[in-house]
């Protein structure tokens, strides 16, 4: 769920990303069934209420974005995606969860700390204009001007969504971390910028085939995490998650230069629905 931004205090300014983006953290947790079995039913009921309140996206003092999901498989029981301008507001969700009545029965399994960004491979309006000319358009022509305006308008929306994203109304999601290789003969960071731009352009075109089916957000973990980027996908159908990942792995940017970490597939829900699914206090 999305909520409006609150005013920023002077203390918080030093923690704001200079780009104007947000801090983002993915969390994954498992319930400790042995600890739950030892808890009185009254404490479990109180724990449910406290957890639901902590994960309420609209609560006062909460983060700007907070999404709960049920995780498939044995890697975790549930996951959170939390974004805010202040990293301590993001982390406070985790601390409140662990300090609550159910905290002793909740085991953190994985997290990924990152910030939102506008990729260096997104063409500026000037670069887009140069590409139009290279493709045969005449600078200043009516067609050139129409295409330039359309791209400039689209760029404003795209960059806003990259820096201060809204969660799409899709019920299926997947997260995974990734790196670009530094191997001999496959070192992404030694490629010329124009070559990297071309490879990422090809990669982006592959993703465009899933418009209306899948939405993607790339956050950067450089300086924050062991992995360089985090990829969050939302889909209208879980099968589209499989299809887009498979389809895009044939692009050279992935096939030759990408390394992937663990995948967490999950299903968007309310905190109460997650607790019901996990049979906590029901």
Structure description:
The protein has 282 residues and is an alpha+beta fold. The chain has a domain of 112 residues: 2-Layer Sandwich (Alpha-Beta Plaits), CATH 3.30.70.1030. The chain is 38% helix and 25% strand. It contains ten helices and eleven strands. The strands form two sheets. An eight-stranded antiparallel β-barrel has the order 1-3-2-11-5-9-8-4. A two-stranded antiparallel ribbon has the order 6-7. The model has no long low-confidence stretch (mean pLDDT 93).
Write out key terms for the chains shown.
282 residues; alpha+beta; Alpha-Beta Plaits; 8-stranded antiparallel β-barrel; two-stranded antiparallel sheet
Short description:
The protein contains 10 helices and 11 strands. It is an alpha+beta fold and 282 residues long. The strands form 2 sheets. An 8-stranded antiparallel β-barrel has the order 1-3-2-11-5-9-8-4. Strands 6-7 form a two-stranded antiparallel ribbon.
Q: What is the chain-wise order of helices and strands?
A: HEHHEEHEHHEEEHEEHHEEH
Shape-level CATH architecture of one domain: 2-Layer Sandwich
| Overall pLDDT score | 93
By DSSP, the count of extended strands is 11
Please state how the strands of the largest beta sheet are arranged side by side: 1-3-2-11-5-9-8-4
| Topology-level CATH name of one domain | Alpha-Beta Plaits
- Find the structural class using helix and strand composition: alpha+beta
Gap between N and C termini, in Å?
A: 25 Å
> What proportion of the residues form beta strands (DSSP E)?
15-25%
Per CATH, the superfamily of one domain is Apc35880, domain 1
For the record, the CATH class of one domain is Alpha Beta
User: Any idea what the shape is?
Assistant: elongated
Helix content: 25-40%
Q: What about the largest sheet?
A: 8 strands, antiparallel, barrel
What is the CA-based Rg, rounded?
Answer: 21 Å
Low-confidence stretches: none
Question: What is the subunit arrangement here?
Answer: single chain
Helix tally? 10
């Amino acid at each position: 769920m999305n909520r409006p931004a609150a005013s920023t205090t002077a203390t918080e300014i030093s923690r704001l990303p200079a780009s104007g983006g947000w801090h983002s953290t993915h969390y994954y947790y498992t319930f400790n069934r042995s600890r739950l079995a030892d808890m009185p039913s009254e404490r479990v009921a109180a724990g449910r209420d406290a957890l639901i309140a902590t994960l309420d996206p609209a609560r006062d003092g909460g983060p700007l974005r907070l999404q709960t999901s049920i995780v498939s498989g044995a890697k975790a029981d549930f996951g959170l995606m939390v974004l805010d301008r202040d990293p301590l507001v993001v982390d406070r969700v985790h601390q409140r969860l662990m300090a609550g009545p159910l905290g002793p029965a909740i085991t953190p399994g994985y997290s990924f700390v990152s910030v939102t960004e506008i990729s260096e491979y997104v063409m500026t309006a000037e670069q887009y204009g140069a590409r139009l000319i290279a493709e045969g358009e005449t600078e200043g022509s009516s067609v050139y001007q129409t295409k330039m305006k359309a791209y400039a308008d689209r760029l404003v929306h795209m960059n806003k969504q990259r820096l201060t994203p809204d969660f799409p109304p899709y019920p299926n999601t997947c997260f995974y971390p990734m790196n670009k290789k530094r191997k001999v003969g496959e070192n992404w960071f030694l490629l010329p910028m124009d070559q990297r731009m071309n490879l990422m352009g090809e990669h982006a075109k592959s993703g465009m085939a899933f418009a209306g089916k899948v939405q993607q957000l790339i956050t950067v973990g450089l300086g924050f995490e062991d992995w360089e980027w985090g990829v969050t996908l939302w889909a209208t159908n879980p099968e589209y998650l499989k299809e887009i990942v498979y389809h895009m792995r044939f692009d050279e940017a992935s096939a030759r230069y990408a390394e992937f970490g663990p995948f967490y597939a999950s299903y968007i829900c309310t905190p109460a629905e997650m607790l019901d699914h996990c049979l906590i206090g029901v």
